[in-house]
Amino acid sequence: MELLEDKVVLVNGGSQGVGAGIVRAAAREGAHVVFTGRRAEVGEKFAAESGAAFVQADLADPVQARRGVEEVVGRHGRIDCLVNAAGLTSRGSLLDTTPELFDAHIAINLRAPFFAMQAAVQNMVERGAPGTIVNIITSSAHGGQPFLAPYVAAKAGLAGLTRNAAHAHRWDRIRINGLNIGWTDTEGEDAVQRAFHGAGDDWRRKAAESQPMGKLGQVDEIADFVVFLLSDRSGVVTGSVIDWDQIVPGGLD
After folding, report:
1. DSSP bridge partners of 9
2. Which stretches are transmembrane (predicted)?
3. How does pLDDT run across 195-253, given as a tens digit for each residue?
4. How many other C-beta atoms can be found within 10 angstroms of the C-beta atom of residue 249?
5. Residue 33 to residues 24, 71, 179, 216: CA-CA distances in angstroms?
6. What is the pLDDT of residues 8-59, one digit of tens each?
């Protein structure tokens, strides 16, 4: 039996990177998958490739963050699973972050998941049906690098929100978990490394050599883990924010 057979799944930020990997994995495991993305051309191309349905949405707008869920419910009559995979990783330190940059991080990395979860949980509660939610967070939520100040602030908030919502809706049989992913090989990370860190074409090789396992996090591996958390195979686990990384928080050399 496929892990997500006949489940209706929405992946926010599903047109590329980790989100796209989750779209593929959920579809492979039998789900009816819908994903959101800001760029219509990119989203429509990936929809044609993956067989998933695309909803254009700018998740910085809380109305559109909720509307993604509403579109899914309109098409399928329900939502069973939600993944918040959209993320903004532009750099900023405590000293050079502008109010505009800070607000952009809060909008995408915290406010959008909040209102998408609100809409999804409302549908689940109204139907008296169980459901599952996975929030893609970051291992940097434990503290992070100095150049990730607004990102860390928003994602640490998402970790707290994940636990709070899981506790609030445990008796509704809605399981909500988070994944603190580490440094991951994605198209977006490639762009960030080149734009903010002057990386060349060999940055992936150098980065892999600097990691204990000899590689960066891989999208397909993360996607498989997310599908497991969405599925009944993950049992009763809820309110867990799992460190999916090769760096151990609190470990010292």
Report:
1. 33, 81
2. none
3. 888 889 999 999 999 999 999 999 999 999 999 999 999 999 999 999 999 999 999 88
4. 11
5. 9, 12, 20, 27
6. 999 999 999 999 999 999 999 999 999 999 999 999 999 999 999 999 999 9
Longest dimension (CA), the chain: 53
Q: Which of 242, 252, 182 is CA-nearest to residue 217?
A: 182
- Which residues on adjacent β-strands are paired with residue 211? none
Is the distance from CB of 179 to CB of 224 less than 8 angstroms? no
Residues catalogued as catalytic: 151
pLDDT per position as a tens digit, 116-153: 999 999 999 999 999 999 999 999 999 999 999 999 99
Dist. CA 129–CA 142, nearest whole Å: 33
Buried-exposed string 213-243: b where 16+ CB fall within 10 A, e elsewhere: eeebbebeebbbbbbbbbbeebeeebbebeb
Query: Is 49:24 a contact under the CB 8 Å cutoff?
Result: no
Contact status, residue 33 vs residue 27, Cβ threshold 8 Å: yes
